[in-house]
């Protein structure tokens, strides 16, 4: 399987409210929430990546 053009998925947390969700990390470092347009209700949230997914070839 490919790496989906260098994009990764990761768990991320909003530094403002503590909401945790899944984001897509683009090759340029931009974070985009998966399945929703906004990560949380904070006006200017800063997202902190908690853990990225494994390469699909590494999953047993």
Which terms summarize this structure?
60 residues; mainly beta
Helical/strand content category: mainly beta
Kindly state the number of beta strands.
4
Strand order, sheet with most strands: 3-2-1-4
Overall body shape: globular
Give the SSE string.
EEEE
Which value, in Å, is the CA radius of gyration? Answer: 12 Å
Strand content: 35-45%
| Tally of structural domains | 1
Q: Would you identify the regions where 5 or more consecutive residues have pLDDT less than 50?
A: 56-60
Helix amount, in percent? under 10%
- Note the gap between the termini: 13 Å
Query: Oligomerization state of this entry?
Result: single chain
What is the count of DSSP helices, taking H or I runs of 4+ residues?
0
The major β-sheet equals: 4 strands, antiparallel
Mean pLDDT: 78
